[in-house]
Amino acid sequence: MKLIRKNMSKMAVLFVSLCVLTSCMFTSLAFGSDVREEERVKDAGEVMKEILNIPDDIPQDLLDKAECVVILPSVLKGAFGVGGSYGRGVMICRSGLHYTGPWGAPALYALEGVSIGFQLGGQATDFVLLVMNPKGARSLLSSKVKLGADASAAAGPKGRTAEGATDIVMTAEILSYSRNKGLFAGISLEGSTLRSDGNANEKLYGRRLTAKEIIVERKVAIPASARPLVSLLDAKSPKNLSDPKSLE
Description:
By secondary structure, the protein is of the alpha+beta class. It has one domain (50-241). 40% of the residues lie in helices and 21% in strands. The chain has helices at 2-52, 60-63, 114-120, 134-142, 167-171, 198-205, 211-215, 227-236; strands at residues 68-77, 85-93, 107-113, 125-131, 145-146, 153-155, 174-180, 183-186, 193-196. Strands 1, 2, 3, 4, 5, 6, 7, 8 and 9 form a 9-stranded mixed beta sheet that branches. β6, α5 and β7 (174-180) form a beta-alpha-beta unit. α1 (2-52) runs parallel beside α8. It is globular.
C-alpha cells in the first residue's frame, strides 16, 4: 500500500511539473510571437527613417501625396517557395475618411511572389511602397491585391521632386522602391501580391482585427512599437497635398 501511495505521489508531482512546463512553453511562445511582431514594426520605422535620410530618396512631393505607405524590411530571396520570396512589414495610412488626418496605427502586411525573387540576389532587401490614391488604399484594405493587375503599379522615381516622371508613373496607384546593400532605387513589383497578415495583426493587437478596422475604423490605439514611425511620418509629411477632388 505504501508503495502504491509513493508511486501515486511521484506521478502527481510529475503531472504537475508537466503542466507547469507546458504552460511556460505556451506563454513563452505567445510572448515571443508578440515580440516578433513588435520588432517588425520597429524595423519598419528604422528602415523608413534611413531611407528618408538618403539625399536622393523618395521625392517629397510624392510622399506628400501618398495616402498610405507600405514598408517591408529585409525581404529575402527564397523565403517563400522555390525562386520566390516572402516579405513581412507594415502598412500605415493617414487617418480620416479622405486620408487627410495625421498618420495612424499600422496594420501588418505580407508581400509574396515569384517575381520578387529574381530581383533580390542573395541579399536582404528593404521595400517601400507608396499608395497614391484612395482606390489603391481601398483595394489593399479589402482584399489580397496582385500588383499590376488588381492595382496599377510602377517603379517609383527618385530625387528631390518627381518632375519629369512619366505619365505611367504619375498615374500608378502604387509606386515601389527597394534598398539593397545601400543602393536605393525604384523597382517594379508587378505580379507580386500584397495582403493583410491577419495572424500577425492578432498577435500585435491582442485580438482579431481586419486591416480596415485598424486603419480606417481606428479600433485600436497606436502601439508603442509604432510611435517612432508615426512621429517620423507626421514630421516629414504632416499634410496630404493631393488634389482634394482626387480624395473624394
